[in-house]
Amino acid sequence: MHTLKTLSFDNTPFWGSTALLALLFLSSLCLGSTNISGNQLLEILFHQDQTSTAFRIVRFVRFPRTLAALLCGMALAVSGYLLQTALHNPLASVNIIGVNAGSLFATVLFSALFPHLVSYTLFASFLGALVSVLLVYFLTKTTKASRTTILLAGVALSSFFSACSDTVITLFPDTQMQRTDFLIGSFSFVTENQLRFCAWFILGSIAISLILQKNLHMLLLGDETAKSLGVPIERVRFASLFLSALLAGSVVSMCGLIGFIALIVPHLVRMLLGTKRSSMIPFCAICGAIMAIGCDILSRILFAPYEIPVGIVLSFVGSPFFLYLLFDRKRRSILA
Membrane-spanning residues where (predicted)? Predict the structure, then answer.
């Protein structure tokens, strides 16, 4: 009963965003180079139309793509929230502090050295993300550096791993991970097998994050306060970073370098919820899915019949937002 009361406390933005997500999901099935009408979609969804071209487009192209956008948006948003909370840095994000770049390097290297084991790239992607996030974590812990220093160190780490990835692609030009869509970020080449495999890791990580949510909220009060309240600080922080790396690695292995969702969504959710943080993680997941699907729709219709990778649209949206956070002097209270 207490849990139900807690979730209903923020019901207006939560249910409003859920309705918007459902609308965008259906719109994503309809919109593209070939538009599907509402009546056609209903016939497809209720199995009244299984032989037409429209059915094949929805079933084998747009549905897997939309589901990939849904899962990746959820994963990145929750990953960003975990990173920002664990490192207590409002500018921490998988694409800024080197997590994505480390994951990409491990994925490209694994694909180049073991092309016959390409279905296992998720594990390489996760290990690369984990190494990156642990490097940033230990740098934070051992040097007591400022947030700006940690951020710049993450940028340097990202550049280093990007250079390593470019080196591997140069030495192994036949690796399939050199695809433009993968390096920019796209949902268009995700297969159903990848979706089924990665969905378990993404949904499982988000479920475990929900268990940690109360302790994560206490971390924002400061280490000393959290410790006095009985929070096992180091275990919670390491678990958060581990889950963040698993979520980011799952996204990179499926869709390539998609990043700004992890930076933008947690901030937008804090603005919407204010001091009501009891539904932070589920709300982040929903808003992340909204942003991913919305930007994917834009990537299809902005220059129709031509299509651009969704990573380009997200960069156009995310770069100004990052600059705003970087220069906004009031951001010192954004995690409070």
Answer: 12-32, 66-84, 90-110, 117-138, 150-172, 193-212, 241-269, 281-302, 308-327
Supply the CATH number for residue 164's domain: 1.10.3470.10
CA gap 153, 31 in Å, rounded: 41
Domain that holds residue 254: 74-321
Q: Is the pLDDT of residue 134 over 80?
A: yes
* 10: helix, strand or coil: coil
Examine the pLDDT at 331 and tell me if it is beyond 80.
Answer: no
For the segment 146-175, the average pLDDT, to the nearest whole number, is: 81
Q: How many secondary structure helices (H) and strands (E) does the chain include? A: 15, 0
Q: Are 188 and 181 in contact (CB under 8 A)?
A: yes
Q: Would 82 be classed as within a structural domain? A: yes
For residue 320, whether the previous peptide bond is cis, meaning omega lies within 30 degrees of 0, is no
Q: Check whether 103 has a pLDDT greater than 70.
A: yes
**The whole model's pTM is what?**
0.86
User: What are the b/e assignments for 216-254, b being 16+ CB within 10 Å?
Assistant: bbbbeeeeeebeeeebebeebbebbbbbbbbbbbbbbbb
Residue 37: pLDDT band with limits 50, 70, 90? confident
Q: What is the largest CA-CA distance in the chain?
A: 64
What single DSSP character describes residue 48?
A: S
Q: Is the residue at 307 inside a domain? A: yes
Poorest-pLDDT segment among 217-221, 252-256, 295-299 = 217-221
Q: What are phi and psi of 322, to 5 degrees?
A: -65, -45
Q: Left (φ > 0), alpha (ψ -120 to 50) or beta: where does 306 sit? A: beta
Residue 153 lies in a domain: yes
Asked if residue 218 is part of any domain, the answer here is: yes
